[in-house]
Amino acid sequence: MKCCGRKRTSYPSYPPFSLIKRNEPEEKPYNNEYLSEGLSDLIDINAEPAVENVQKQIMSQAKIFEAIKEASKEIFRQKNKQKMLENEQQQQLEQRENN
């Protein structure tokens, strides 16, 4: 019987569970000092002009998207209102013709 591809090995491709590190202390424990240092780094990053510019662009795009959604809703409402008026006028014409 011919097979394609590589030969299968008898061992799994992942390390055995005994080799996986378990319950060992992490390199940097999550203490308040470590967290506050990370938060201050994030605050420093947010103060960068490039980050501020990107944030402004994102907010502008979000506002534009909201405006487009509202405009689309209003167009839909106007079209429905127009159709209703046309239907009413058509019904009035039909009633006049029938009388």
TrEMBL record:
Top-rank taxon, per record: Eukaryota
Pfam families cross-referenced by the UniProt entry: CCAP (PF11105)
Region feature Disordered, mapped onto this chain: 80-99
InterPro entries: CCAP (IPR024276)
Descriptive protein name: Uncharacterized protein
Lineage summary: Eukaryota, Metazoa, Ecdysozoa, Arthropoda, Hexapoda
